[in-house]
Amino acid sequence: MMPMTGIARILAAAMLSLPAVASPLFAEPPVGPPAPAAVDPNAASAPVRAMFTKYCNACHVGEKAKGGVDLEKLLGQGPPASHRKPWARLKENVEGGTMPPDDHPQPSQEEINALRDWVDAELKKIDCGRTVDPGRVTIRRLNRVEYDNTIRDLLGVDFHPADDFPSDDVGYGFDNIGDVLSLPPILMEKYLAAAETIAEQAIVTGSNARPLVKSYDADSMSAADGEPQDDARILTSDGEIAVAHAFPRDAAYIVRVRAYGQQAGKEPVKMAILVDGKTLKTVEVKAKSGAPEIYEVREKLRHGSRRVGAAFLNDFYDPDNPDEQQRDRNLVVESIEIEGPITAKDDPLPESHKRLIFRTPKKPEEFPECASAVLEKFMLRAFRRPVTGGEVSKLVRLVEMARENGDSFERGVQLAVQAVLASPQFLFRVELYRPKRDKKGKPINAESGAPLNPFEIASRLSYFLWSSMPDDELFKLALDGGLTKDEVLEKQAKRMLRDPKAQAFVENFAGQWLQLRLLKTVNPDRGQFATFDEPLRNAMQQESELFFASIMREDKSVLDFIDSDYTFLNERLAQHYGIPDVTGPQFRRVKLKGKERGGLITQASVLTVTSNASRTSPVKRGKWVLEQILGSPPPPAPPNVPQLADDAKGVLTGTLRQRMEQHRSDPSCASCHARLDPPGFGLENYDAVGAWRAKEGEFPIDASAKLPTGESFSGAAELKAILYKTRKTEFVTCLSEKMLTYALGRGLEDFDVCTVEKIVKDVSADQYRFSRMVLEIVKSDPFRKRRG
């Protein structure tokens, strides 16, 4: 067998010889349409100039301009159409009454209307009929979810190597943004190790294959029963400590538990090793503190995600025993280790092996031909594009070198697969610019952008909706060029939304848009919210995911996200909501009575992640509504602002609302809170874990408020009615911007406004159907082109 040092050198050479691609660290600098010429500040309408001078310039001109907003500088940067965001925010603040602050002179309604009309007219001057810049996306590394899903679909192995990778950075609210997906050295080391492990598990080479060993430390174990103790978890009463492990295929595995007992009573600690609650082996843990031992069991197990645990079986407690060492018997688990799959000679070949190695040589001279056929098919799918003969031949050489060193054909292919999985062509989603050239060979820069080739479109489509590589149907359409046609793109997008793999879109887009991922980390105060537990946490998450999935799969109106007369509940969550006649652990669609629930903003998941540990947070909830529903995020809080106390004692002095009104008495705070607080106050009937309440302590809840735009409401039902009836265009715009950002893998720029406006117009004209938003995104120029 080839020594590992030799393998490493060969793999390094193979990787370096593959076509080089840029990384985010060396990405091309952003270039775009030429900046508009600066305009004379006096070109603004006279009433607007007069208003700025009278009410604004004292605070918003010069180097010390408050909030960093220098109006003279903003006017000098060009027309508002080329700097939409600051002008839109300025108009919103003045029209909503948050600027000027309440303790400053206030403009009349006529002056406000003049500013609004001028800004609106200027913003509409952008010509959406002209050639639109499609923008440029920084070359994107596969994030952790995309890596795992791609490995699953490429090789048919169902385990999650990316669990060991560093967390992905987030930009513009999502973790698939090219600009922030860097490649630190530690991640490259993880890629190399994962490539070796994946290749060895996907391809069977005989008895010399090294089984995968996965070890889970105390931090990786579930904490439902076991309590943390140094680098271990302790069970002080009968219960179970477990981990979730993905078994890649049906095979034999060894489960090892490193543990010791805190001994007491007449018998030693007894422990059961379990898989999915079934006892595989019961052992006596005679080991003591300072000298843990390993207890193991070998068993044939089916593939898939399984719960592997260690259970404490014989709790003993005698607090009156004169010997302190004999008062309490406990089980302490330091780690759980799983080895496998362990392949025997008579075991059937795994599906991953059969999928990859569809031809094997019968004699040595057939090695190159068989290796070329196997690797060309594999590399096309791994690189998500056709490969050249030169690329294939370099990896065929690895197979031949393995044979020369006495290894099998399968071992040679294993090494080649390892090199492919560590290649930048696999790890990055590559979109190369191929400019058209004139007769002299000089590139012709197309103002409308350069079309992506069909394989690049296939990858954009699959990673948008599935967070994974294209399937065979997309590859076939890419090969024959069909994906460049609108009708084909529409048909494929609809097919992909119906496919089970679209669950990835629910978990990754919705999970980040709605900030559901934070639900795993929130820890409400168990003293105040005793009903909150892990089953309830999981039920909250599942309700929101099922609700989003139903709108997506049934092609409902996206306005159902604002308000609906149905949701998805099981008995546990229904009890939490106070909804009767829902029994059993299974989730089902439930028709809602009344308006207390329905839509996203009244779901317990959202209400919990926008609360503090011991109380609600109207500020967090209001911020969530502004950012995720209306697309109008507030400015960051000024420095050195004291936080409202997060404790239960405050309720003795009045409701949270009353305490907040005192807290925001500072005029510099009031301007922002005028936007943040009203939506949050409208949700005050829901406590910090989303349960309905009429009082806070002994004080009745006041859920009335007035939005900066003038609409008054009382409670969540009236707030949702306002959002549904008068702010739906803002919501559809916000959702379009977020979905387009996620689809492109980049933040939106001013030149994207025409694309967003078209999406909103077409979605509105098609009864706000979910699929129309997706279809308009995949047919848009930014999705199908890149900057020339």
TrEMBL record:
Signal peptide region: 1-22
UniProt KW keywords: Heme, Iron, Metal-binding, Signal
UniProt xrefs under PROSITE patterns: CYTC
Residue stretches making up the Cytochrome c domain: 43-123
GO MF annotation terms: electron transfer activity; heme binding; metal ion binding
SUPFAM superfamilies in the record: Cytochrome c
The protein's name in its UniProt record: Cytochrome c domain-containing protein
